[in-house]
């Protein structure tokens, strides 16, 4: 059983030379799925079965998502053996898709993932060096105004209207119709008025459902990586009702100021989320930041919508990828006041809500 108790980072776990068969997620039995690697968020739990074929020592290797360090154990019948330490993978580089941007233009990747070399950690692009996200300018493309959404040499770009000459279809409007709120939802993504201001440095207007995306740093790495789309509950869904209402929450923040919030409002200033005992509700989370957020609802299961309503996996922690959206169903079957928060300790004070079931 793997449990991420770090409170500070997500880990990518593998046992080189062995296949892992995942049999439970967050303590709930699932249909077995064979993989080489999985990402585990803070407080997530996975149970796996492995079958060593020799008496050699195997590394149980968990590398931090930013590749700055790792934890390691040894699987062996001989306690004197130590397995070799695998090399860390390269640090992941985020792309436009991880910013919640999408483009509907022939010949272009939907999430702009083909613009290799873009590094938002340092704000530079290969072939477009000198890009300064603080100043909103690029060398060779002077005049870029992030407030007005205009570039010299790329006239016609309108961030309010979501159009670019030669790249029509990009929608940066506040109420984008490019994507819906969640799986099975008919609601468009919309941003609350509280999300606008110096405390929020970006908003994802075309967030994608990335259930089958292993996430940054794990894409196309040559290994079979577990995704949420692979998880199917072993038993039929207990509550087959359609949700009576939907709650859309945006995970927000300012990376430079390190301010974190939900819908642009920190916990101290926020009203509780009110649920009625016994009701069925769809929660949709939209990640407007460029960090992963493992979100934990206390007291009730988060039933992750993966496309098969008959066998919905039940989880208590759900990772929301950068610039992505995810939805799950909640049956409000536990009266009381419950914590609802990002499980990364340095996000928790702001990215936190109280849920009241009454």
Element layout with pairings:
Layout: E1 2-3, E2 11-14, E3 20-25, E4 28-35, E5 37-40, E6 45-49, E7 58-64, E8 70-75, E9 208-209, E10 245-254, E11 259-262, E12 273-275, E13 280-287, E14 293-297, E15 302-304, E16 314-315, E17 317-320, E18 324-331, E19 336-342, H1 345-348, E20 352-357
Parallel strand pairs: 9-18, 10-13, 12-20
Antiparallel strand pairs: 1-6, 2-5, 2-7, 3-4, 3-6, 7-8, 10-11, 13-18, 14-17, 14-19, 15-16, 15-18, 19-20
Taken in chain order, the helices and strands follow as: EEEEEEEEEEEEEEEEEEEHE
What is the overall silhouette?
globular
Largest sheet entry: 7 strands, mixed
Q: Percent helix among the residues?
A: under 10%
Low-confidence stretches: 103-182
Average of the residue pLDDT scores: 82
Which percent band covers the strand fraction? 25-35%
In terms of quaternary structure, the protein is single chain
Helix-strand category? mainly beta
What is the C-alpha radius of gyration, as a whole number of Å?
Answer: 21 Å
Amino- and carboxy-terminal Cα gap? 35 Å
Number of strands: 20
Tally of DSSP helical segments: 1
